[in-house]
Amino acid sequence: MIKTFFFTSLAGLSLAIFSCVEQPVKDENNKVLLELMNKRLEVAPSVAKSKWNTKAPINDPIREKTILDSVEARASRMGLDKHFARDFFQAQFEAGKKVQTQLHEKWEKEAQPPFDPTINLATEVRPVLDSLTPLLLVELKKIQLANNKQSFENFKKSARNIIHTEFDDNVVEIAIKPIKSHLK
Ligand SMILES: C=C(O[C@@H]1C=C(C(=O)O)C=C[C@H]1O)C(=O)O
């Protein structure tokens, strides 16, 4: 009886210690990834403004291909699944383009004149996006390595908490979709 009690308590204690040590580490990984995804989305209004002024199309497949090719090469060097990396970045592009489209539709309705001062896409805006790429890849690698006990549903909840409310649920869903297959 005493022996059973002792072993049950020991098992309970080990479980408590294990969850205290393990869980925050994984949550922290997801938090950093989601914060970076949010930062990337926060650049979209500046991209939208610049394209509104210059009337450039929202979609730029050549620029996307350049980023994706470099992402694949970096992923391979890091031992990160290049298909996962590619899908993830394509999803970030789609989420960002959704934000840009929503803003252009709003400005269309409001007959928004060109913004002043003009923000230069190539020299001021895109470098911010490029600076986030290697940081996102490092966090993706952590997600790939984690033996995920955490469900996609939990990740989705964290995503909604961390990604700012100016980005609607649809934008969040688009951005997190490729993570689904990596969190059981
Ligand atoms: C952000 C831009 O708009 C779109 C989204 C991209 C992105 O999220 O990196 C890249 C190219 C465009 O299709 C851009 O043109 O730089």
TrEMBL record:
Q: Which SMART domains match?
A: CM_2
Q: Which residues form the signal peptide?
A: none
Keyword Isomerase recorded: yes
Keywords assigned by UniProt?
Isomerase, Signal
Quote the protein name from its UniProt record. Answer: chorismate mutase
Which intervals of the chain form a coiled coil? none
Q: Where is the Chorismate mutase domain?
A: 12-104
GO terms (BP aspect): chorismate metabolic process; salicylic acid biosynthetic process
Write down the NCBIfam families for this protein, in alphabetical order: CM_mono2 (TIGR01806)
**EC number, as in UniProt:** 5.4.99.5
Q: Name one GO molecular function term.
A: chorismate mutase activity
InterPro entries from the xrefs? Chorismate_II_sf, Chorismate_mutase-related, Chorismate_mutase_periplasmic, CM_dom_sf, CM_II_prokaryot
Q: Which domain of life is it from?
A: Bacteria
What broad taxonomic lineage does this protein's source fall under?
Bacteria, Pseudomonadati, Bacteroidota, Flavobacteriia, Flavobacteriales
